[in-house]
Amino acid sequence: MEVSDQRLQAATFEAIALPLFDQLYNFARWLTQDTTEAEDLVQETYAKALRGFSSFQAGTNFRAWMYRILRNSFLSSRTGLKTTVVFDEEEHAPATPESSSPESLLISEVTRETVQRALEELPVYFREILLLCEVEEMSYQEIAETLAIPTGTVMSRLFRARKALRGLLERRVEGGRHGV
Amino acid sequence: MACEAWRAKLDTYVDGELAPVDAGPLSTHMRGCAACATDALQRVQMKRSVAMAGKRFEPSAELRAKIMKSVAAKPRREIGWVWKIVAVPAVLVLIASIGVNWYAGRANTRRQHVYSELADLHVMALASATPVDVISTDRHTVKPWFQGKIPFSFNLPELQGSDFTLLGGRVTYLSQTPGAHLIYQIRKHDVSVFIFQDRGDEKASLASGPVHAVSFNVENWTQNGLRYFVVGDVSAGDIQALSKLLRSAG
Q1: Could you read off the pLDDT of B29-49 as tens digits, one per residue?
Q2: What is the pLDDT of residue B4?
Q3: B216 forms bridges with which residues in the sheet?
Q4: Please, which residues have CB within 8 angstroms of residue A156's CB and are 6 or more apart in sequence?
Q5: Is the pLDDT of residue B75 over 80?
Q6: Residue B150: partners with Cβ closer than 8 Å, 6 or more residues away
Q7: With the CA atoms of B169, B170, B175 and B177 taken in that order, what torsion angle do they form, in degrees rounded to the nearest 10?
Q8: pLDDT tens digit string along B129-139?
Q9: How close does chain B come to A165, measured CA to CA in Å?
Q10: DSSP letter at B208?
Q11: Other C-beta atoms within 10 Å of B146: how many?
């Protein structure tokens, strides 16, 4: 992006950053699990992005850049700091190469609310990657840019996240069947 | 390939990220394998239900308004009349003080501007692979080279018996006026000599004499309608010596 002056830059930023507002808020709300915190996070993200827009590199993905700012702001927030320890542990966990089959779970039996509960229950690093992949429909490359991890790690973390979600859903469906 | 091997690729497949070289054969395999096809379908259903469940939170209208205001390209500030009462005298005082400072700082700024531009020209020439366009130690070669290239003529000194050597020259520009840039050497140090016409521009406002600017020693003077600058990282004494030689020739 060739941005010649400040006003043009601000106009460009407005034009490309505002359409992401609803999605960014949804993502922030899922991360923080709190309305006020999510609102603060989105405001902080826009303020930081506007300030740093001149350093935004042409040719890189703007959406991934915005999500990355939001996520980094979250990680340095009070709520986010609690999750970083878990992140580190997760990075050192070995990748699970075997395939897991979703056969035992009939997803049609699962309500939207149950999926939401399960997502809430997932650790942040699984929740965020699932949201980026399924809700934001980001490519592996975009997810890699957002989370600042290699594409290989995106695949293995996504695999583990799906497996964990399936496990939670199975338990919930089983529990429901037995009236628990 | 066995079903187990295909199933390891199913997630990547339903995410649309499997390379075509694998995706094609996998599609073919699923057409004949109900188990793998069902598995893929369930993964797609799972993706869809997460996508639906994930689109959950709507931002408030207040937050939307705040964000829109914060990123607006042209923020309009509505200042009430109360502010004007305070702002108008403040602005007048500010303008007055800027005016005073401007007069005081004008000469200084001009000087700094010219000197930093000269220092840039000097450093740029030294950093260049071809610091001079006419390469000669002979002043009778260097001086005629400038004929027709710059709108004035100048004299160069005889260097015999001094420590200086002439390396050559090039045409240069300072404040949009053409001039001569000569490079002399003394004890492996390069010294730039700039010669411009002395016209009523910012160069003319400079006081003659030695200056130490942006870590270079600079000497400047006017002679026969020409403004000379000698710039280098050598001692002030060497700059003076070269200036004296040039003065005697000009």
Answers
A1: 999 999 999 999 989 999 999
A2: 86
A3: B213
A4: A95, A96
A5: no
A6: B171, B178, B179, B180
A7: 100
A8: 778 888 888 88
A9: 10
A10: P
A11: 22
Three-state helix/strand/coil letters over chain A: CCCCCHHHHHHHHHHHHHHHHHHHHHHHHHHHCCHHHHHHHHHHHHHHHHHHHHHCCCCCCHHHHHHHHHHHHHHCCHHHHHHHHHHHHHHHCCCCCCCCCCCCCCHHHCCHHHHHHHHHHCCHHHHHHHHHHHHCCCCHHHHHHHHCCCHHHHHHHHHHHHHHHHHHHHHHHHHHHCCC
Q: Which ipTM value was assigned to this complex?
A: 0.85
Distance from CA of A142 to the nearest CA of B (A): 12
Cα distances (Å, whole numbers) of residue B235 to A73, A102, B13: 54, 82, 73
Dist. CA A84–CA A164, nearest whole Å: 19
A97 vs B: CB within 8 A: yes
Asked if A119 contacts A30 with a C-beta cutoff of 8 angstroms, the reply is yes
At B129, list the tokens: 């692979």
Cross-chain Cβ contact A115/B39 below 8 Å? no
d(CA B139, CA A175): 100
- Homologous superfamily in CATH for domain B107-249: MucB/RseB, C-terminal domain (3.30.200.100)
Cβ neighbors of B115 (< 8 A, separation 6 or more) are: B211, B213, B214, B216, B218
pLDDT of residue A95: 47
Runs of H (alpha helix) within chain B: 3-7, 10-14, 20-32, 34-54, 61-71, 81-127, 139-145, 236-249
Q: Cβ–Cβ of A26/B54 closer than 8 Å?
A: yes
Residues whose CB is less than 8 angstroms from the CB of residue A79 and which lie 6 or more positions away in sequence, other chains included = A32, A33, A34, A37
A34 close contact with B: CB closer than 8 A: no
Residues in chain A: 180
Which tokens sit at B36? 């793998």
Classify each residue of A82-115 as buried b or exposed e, where b means 16 or more C-beta atoms within 10 Å of its C-beta. Answer: ebeeeeeebeeeeeeeebbbbeebebeebeeebb
Q: How much of chain B, in percent, has pLDDT values that exceed 70?
A: 87
- Half-sphere exposure of residue A39, counting CA atoms within 13 Å on the CB side? 11
Task: Closest CB to A119: pick one of B15, B43, B53.
Answer: B53
B103 pLDDT band (50/70/90 cuts)?
Answer: low
Which of A153, A12, A35 has its CA nearest to residue B71? Answer: A12
Contact B71 A46 (CB under 8 A): yes
B interface test, pick of A30, A96, A115 with most B CB neighbours within 10 Å: A115
